[in-house]
Amino acid sequence: MKFLAAAVSTLALATGVLAQSAYIEKPADGDSVTAGSSLVIDVVRPNTISSSQEVGIAIGISSCTSKACLPANSTLGTLLYNGRFTPQYDEDQAATGQYQPHQNITVQIPGDFTKGTAQINFAHFFLLGASLSPYIETSEVNVTVN
User: Fold this and answer.
1) Which of 3, 40, 98, 124 could form a disulfide with 22 if both were Cys (CB 3.0 to 4.6 A apart)?
2) Is the pTM of this model over 0.85?
3) Residue in 2, 37, 45 with CA at minimum distance from that of residue 20
């Protein structure tokens, strides 16, 4: 019976964590970006049902032109950003259409980056709950580099 209670608690916590996952909203999957130019990446952190503390994020880019890209939990590729993550609500949410806390991060796509299919990789590190359990989540967005 104790095993069942522990399993249910673990499943509930994991479900809560997944429901709170931060993600890259822009650029969207399939968008084009330009080598040698700056790019605004909009990272959304949905409302949380549990207390959490942000630690930071890292964003990278990998070329997928000559071989399939690895998932972000294996590599971030060329690092574009590594630092603080302080998502905020927009003051005028109706005007921006953004109703979740988010942060715009401007990065520079290297000028010599391989043109073609690429993947923007994202890693998010945060502490969850009263016990401040550490979590790392990752995700990817597929783009085309021009």
Assistant:
1) 124
2) no
3) 45
